[in-house]
Amino acid sequence: MKIATFAVFLSPSNPNIQSMRYFSTLFFLGFWCCQLHAQSALDSNLHVRDFHFEHNVYDESKGTKGIVFSYEYFYPSTSNFLVSIPNDVRLYKNSEEIYIDSSSFVTLRANAWAKAKIFIPYRNINLEGGLHNNLSFAYNANKEIKWFSNISFNQPNRCLVEIGLQEGSVKRKLKQWDQGANPIEWLPDPYAVFYTNKGTTPFYRMPLIKNNYTIDTQKLKFYILEGEILHWAFYDEDGVVDQPLGTLTLFEASGDFEKLFRGQMFGDIKGLTFSFSKKLQVRQPISIFVDSSSIHKDRKGVGIRIEYNLARAYKGEQAIPQLIFKDKAGSIIDVPYIYSLNETAILGQKVKLDIEGQWDYFIPFYAWNSNIYKIECPLNIENKATTQSAPRLLYNPITFDKYVSYTLFEVQENKKYMGASGLYVQLGYQVTDINRYSDLEILFSSGYDASTPFHIYQLHKNGSAEIVKTKPLRIKKPKAIDTLTFFVPYQTLKTDQIHAELSMIPDMKIKLFSGASSKIEKPKNSNDAVIQLAKTLPVFKEGDYGQVFSLKSTTPKFFLSYSRLNIKVQRNGKDYKNYIIHTNNTESDSFLLVKDTGTIDLVLPFRNLIGKDRIDFSCFISDLKGYPMSDTIKESWQANGDLHNKKVSIGLEKMVYAKGAIPESLKGKNTKWKYQIFLGSQRKMTKTLVKNFKGKDIRNKFRRTFKIHREDLIQIKLVHSKTEREVMLWSGDLGKFELHKNKSIILDKSPVKKAIIKVKVIN
After folding, report:
1. In the prediction, which pLDDT does 314 show?
2. Given 130, 383, 434, 520, which is the most exposed site by the fewest CB atoms within 10 A?
3. Smallest Cα–Cα separation from 398: which of 492, 291, 323?
4. Against a cut of 0.85, is the pTM above it?
5. Rounded to whole angstroms, how far apart are CA atoms 36 and 87?
6. Is residue 41 exposed (0-12), middle (13-18) or buried (19+ Cβ within 10 Å)?
C-alpha cells in the first residue's frame, strides 16, 4: 500500500504550484489562508488539483441557489471497478457549525482526470442575510482528501416556514390503491415532499403513512430563500413507481405571512387544513454565537461571541453588555465565572459602541451549567431603549466530561504519632484538567461553624509534620491524584466532630467534597504531656538561696516546639514575677518546650521576700495558644518570720590599671571594660569603667545598695565589651566579706593592677 501526503500553501512563488497548476484562482469575495492535505489509502496514489468555489450558482434540479465547491482528481488504478467515497462538508462561523452535509458521494473514475462538485444550498446555511466574513469551510472525503479554508460570501435572505397540519385525507376510489393478498394493503400509503421553483429534487420529506386514507396531524419546519415558490407534492408509495396524488403550490415566498388554510382540495387530496407561517430571517442587531469546543488559557470551555450591527445613531453611545442564561423553564441560571476576552467590553461595565463590532467571552468547563438552554444579550444604552438580542437556544445541551473521579474523607481514631495520641484525618481526590492551573484549598472546622477548635498538623511523606497555620490551607500546584494525611492530637481536640471541605480554586471555588465525620469518642486519659511536683524545700541553687519548687515533666517528641510551660506565681494574692527558672537543658530562660525537659526548678530567692509572705504556685503544659495539654498542679508555701536578709552597700573604692592595659590613645572617658555585680544567678549591676578612676563622684557612681540573703553568692567581675573576656575580682557570700573586715583588695589581675572593694551592712 502506498500513501501519499502533501501540503501546498497558496503562494505565487511556489514552483510546484506554477508547474503543476494544482490550484486555480478562487472565485469568491474573500479567501485568506488555505491548506490541503491529501492522503490515499486506496490501491495507489490519489492526485487532486484545482480546488475552487463558485458563488450564487442556481441548481435547476434543486430549484435553489447556493455555493459550488469543486476540485479535480486523478485516481490511478488497475481495477475496472469505480470507487465511491462519502463526503463530509461543514461550514463554521465563530467556531459554531452553521452547515453540515454528509450525504454526497464522489465516484472515483480511474486513470483519468475527473471533476467532483459539491453543491451547498444557501437555504441550508444557518445565517441571516448579508455579507459574512471569516467563515471556516472544511471538506473531508473519507479521510482521503482534506481541505480547510477561510471564506466570505453574501448570504441571501432566508424564510422560516412552519406548517401545522391539522387534517387531510386521500380520496376513496372504487378500485384498490395498491396490490396485495391482504385487503388492508390495498389502502394508500401517502407521504408528501416539498420542492422549490421548478426543481425536481425534494428538499423536505414528510413521514410515510402506511395503509391509511387519513394524513396524520403533524408540525413541519424548514427554510427556503426569499422569493422562492414552494410546492407541496403528495404521493402514494407503490414500491416501484410512486403514484402522484396532487401538488399544492403555495405562493412566492416574499415578506412575512401567516394564514390558516381550510379544506384544500387538489388531485386526490381532500380536506387539507393547515396553518401556514412564513417569517423572513432578518439579520439581528445583536447576534449570539456559541462554540462548545473553545479553549482559553489551556482551559476547555464554551466560547460566546456577541456580534452587533446597529444604526448609525448608536455610534459613540455608552452601553453596558450583559449575558443572561436561562433553563427551559425560563429560570435564570447563575454562571459564576466568565472571562471577558475584550478589555473594552467587560460584562457589567460601560463600553463605547461603534456601528458594528464583536465581543468575545469564555466560560470554563467547570463554570458551565449543562441546564443552560437560552442565552440572551440585552444591551442597555444610555438615554435609549434597551436593545435585545435574538435569544440563542441550545437545543442540544452542552456537556463536559466529569472532572472529579473520586474523593476520600476518613477519620481514624486512637492513633499514635511521635508519642502523641490522636486522630488521623485522610483526604484523597482525583481530578482531571483543573489541577493544572488551580490551588487546592482545605478547610477544617468543628462541623457546627467555620471555626477550627483544634490543632491539626499535616504529615508529609518524608515523616515530618507541619502545623496548619492558615484557614483555609492553600496548596500550590496540587497533583491530579493525591491523598493527604493530617494528625489531630487528642490534647488539643475540643469537639466531637470534624468537618472537612476540599476545593479546587483556578479562578472560582470548585467544591470537590464537603462532609463531617461521625461522632468522635475522646479517650478519658488522653493527655500525653505530664508535669508533676517532685518536692518543695529551701535550698541553695546555682548561687541563689530560697524556696525551690522542683518539677518533673514529660512531653512527647511530637509536641516539642509546639508546647509551652505555663507558670503562675502569686505573692500574698497578687501576681509575682520575681522568680528564677532552672532547667536541665539549654532553654533555661524560655518557657517554650523544645526538648523533653525532665527536671524544672523554680526558685524564689529569699532576698526578694519578707517574713510571713504567702506564695501560691500553679503550672501546666499548653499548646502555643494556651489550650491545656496536661493536668494543672498547685502548691502553696509561707515564708518564716525571719529570712536572714541584709541590706548592704557594695562599692568600688579604687581602680588602678596595669601598665598598657588601657591604651593611651583611648579617646573619651570610658574604657572597653564593664564592671558587673551578680547576686546569685541574677545580674544586679553593669557599668562601664572610666579611664581616670579618681574622685568621690566617680566612686559614688560605682556604689550600689542591695538586699541580700546571707547565703547568696556574691560575684564581682570585669567583662570586656568586645572580646567578652571575664576577670573575676571577687566571689563569696556575705560572711566571707565579714571575715575580711568587709574589704577586699585585688592585685595584679589584668587589666587591674590594684582594686579595692568595700561592703557595708546597713541593717
Report:
1. 80
2. 383
3. 291
4. no
5. 16
6. exposed
